[in-house]
Amino acid sequence: GAVVSQHPSWVICKSGTSVKIECRSLDFQATTMFWYRQFPKQSLMLMATSNEGSKATYEQGVEKDKFLINHASLTLSTLTVTSAHPEDSSFYICSARVLTGKDSPLHFGNGTRLTVT
Amino acid sequence: GNSVTQMEGPVTLSEEAFLTINCTYTATGYPSLFWYVQYPGEGLQLLLKATKADDKGSNKGFEATYRKETTSFHLEKGSVQVSDSAVYFCALSSGNTPLVFGKGTRLSVIA
User: Fold this and answer.
1) B39-60 per-position pLDDT tens digit
2) Is A95 left (phi over 0), alpha (psi -120 to 50) or beta?
3) Which residue among B94, B98, B104 places its CB closest to the CB of A42?
4) Cα distance from B12 to chain A (closest Cα, Å)?
């Protein structure tokens, strides 16, 4: 089945530093990937849609200069949390579709637990 | 806009009990419907899906039927196991947009 790999699985960083999270589609090409943030009470918030070769589309309320997304190839999207602060601590999950269209499910990475101290 | 409402948890059941997690949706057109499961510390895994009215998705003993007349996609399992303890998300997809998720329902199964 389709596999999405996310790295690292957890990271601890100091306030003010930047952290990069990678999301790879291992056995398929993904022109579009989606980044979610999961809050403590488990709800998922879509942050942005990552488009290969073009700018990401951010959801309302998500700061694009803080959460930099780069989708340089058909198998790799990265999310960089810049100048991280404790309130950015969260579980970040990427996902991708094998095929376009409503019938095609999203395949998720295993998530990255970010802790900012 | 599209939205998904699922029953709030947590739900605690004894092993071998019957499980129902309710999910209703609002959408324009004819969405596809999904159930995802998230085990502790992991990402989401697709559990089952249904792409049109009256379809039944099934996997690992779980079932859900796409009911257009009641705009529902309730998740059921006849006999839960401790290993089913997880968070379950109902979701819909309309067009090529990202999935819209419900808030998740935490299930705990005790031996």
Assistant:
1) 988 889 999 999 999 999 999 9
2) beta
3) B104
4) 17
